[in-house]
Amino acid sequence: MSLDPAELRVLDAAKSCCERWGLAKVTIEDIANEAGVSRATLYRMFPGGKDVLFEALRVRELEEFFTRLSVHLDGADDFEDLLVRCVMHATHELRADQHLSLMLASEPGDTLGQLTVEGLPRIIGVATVFLAPLVDGYLPRAEGARVVELLSRLVISYFLAPSEQVDLGEPESARAFIQTFILPAFQPSLIRS
Amino acid sequence: MSLDPAELRVLDAAKSCCERWGLAKVTIEDIANEAGVSRATLYRMFPGGKDVLFEALRVRELEEFFTRLSVHLDGADDFEDLLVRCVMHATHELRADQHLSLMLASEPGDTLGQLTVEGLPRIIGVATVFLAPLVDGYLPRAEGARVVELLSRLVISYFLAPSEQVDLGEPESARAFIQTFILPAFQPSLIRS
DNA sequence: TGACGGTGAGACACGAAGTGTCTTACTGTC
DNA sequence: GACAGTAAGACACTTCGTGTCTCACCGTCA
To answer: pTM value?
Structure first.
């Protein structure tokens, strides 16, 4: 994708400026200064300005998120184990994400929007791209996409509003949840591998 | 002075907005919203807008600073002890001031200006007003003002750039410093009380 | 050496946002 | 029922951010 070190600097600058001042208060110039590039260069890299820049930042963050997540999914024993690991480590990642918690604290409206409304389709899209290869061994493509979408929505929901009943960060709780609510729906069509 | 609870709310709002976004990014409207007053009211309270408002905030912070400091100066045994307590507790106050450390971190330029250039005369002024009554017992008024000014400058300097030689937050070090550099200058005219 | 791609710096017009003032209507108090 | 203080919003004015463009500069490669 984008290997240009200057672009990475700009994205890093956008991230840290965003943490310091919030999306609403940041200007293109702030980011350009922080990144040590001129405004002209920034517009050359991200034609469209702030919107495009922050879109790119969200995509990068999302891809990093799933890259980190993938590490924990490698040795999965079976379909159930794969799903349990998915929700568990995704939950851990979310809870450990400092940038996310800063954004949720300082600008809850926009951040929630990105997690639950405008941004959700992209989250599900990226999740599907990253997780499809892993689920493919167990389920037909369309079914896999369905379960990835469902789990994405659930992980986000339980992260934002923790439940008394379920803690998707806990192995036993996550396993029980998957066994009860997810697996039954797909049982008949399961493929062993 | 100003006992109006709404004014206090506005000053508190200015302080917290300032910590969140920095002086440069805050707007009058942000502060009015945070304080729960209308913009019109805010201009009525502080005619002149942002400048006047933040001036008032600095004055309040400064007076609170010296009010807290005064608590530690009551039982001073003698002139030396008074000066030692002054520099020591002032240093402690400065080091413990979260607002100050936030401001120094997020907007070092403006904050340093307030501590060392534009704001210094006021700091010295308020320090003199607060400390003069305590020093009066030992020194003539003019001499007292001189020593208060000198110590103000020194405490700020050692706070901003700690020394290897001297730690004005430590009782022994502060005492040695006062004995070596301050008392000799005033010894001849000392008045016991 | 000269062409070339990429960059910083700055000018520019435009639009958005903040400012400071004012008027109006509302609310609670005496 | 007069009064003081306030919220809300209109208003003109100014500042600031934006997006685009031009130009000068610099290192690279031919």
So the answer is: 0.83
